[in-house]
Amino acid sequence: MNAVTRDEARTGNTSMRAMRSTDLEAVMQIETAAYPYPWTAGIFRDCLLAGHGCWVLERSNGDIIGYGVLSAGAGEAHVLNICVAPWQQGHGHGRHLMQRLIDLARWHRAERVFLEVRPSNPVAQRLYESLGFNEIGRRPNYYPDHNGRREDAIVMAMELLPPEG
Description:
By secondary structure, the protein is α+β, with helices and mostly antiparallel strands. The chain is 27% helix and 37% strand. Strands 1-2-3-4-5-6-8-7 form an eight-stranded mixed sheet, sandwiched between helices.
């Protein structure tokens, strides 16, 4: 089974599966709880329609606790969105989601993966660094902030090496 056709990859009491349009209400509850400037349901719907890698992490009872969106093409992949419900953070779910997105990028034969992260999110920065991402630049005034100003984005990238073996 490969990263695109595999319906579930079990880890503990959670499973990973492809996002469906019927998941958007639960995804939006997490998105609005986690971010002061959340994506809209329309953005998620467009990502599904465009065929981006959209995955959800759910508990054994069916509750969605996180999701990730990856765009891949032309030898590159871009993590567009990744989020774990605020009440489920700190349990390794973000790492699990990122590893799935990285696997998906490899499946698409991407040579590198990019993402942006807020400077004010050091927890996410440490996670990405621990997975092999490095800062490669900044996007000035990329994110809105709650003070009516803008916050830069740290651009990070990870080179994907061929699998060992």
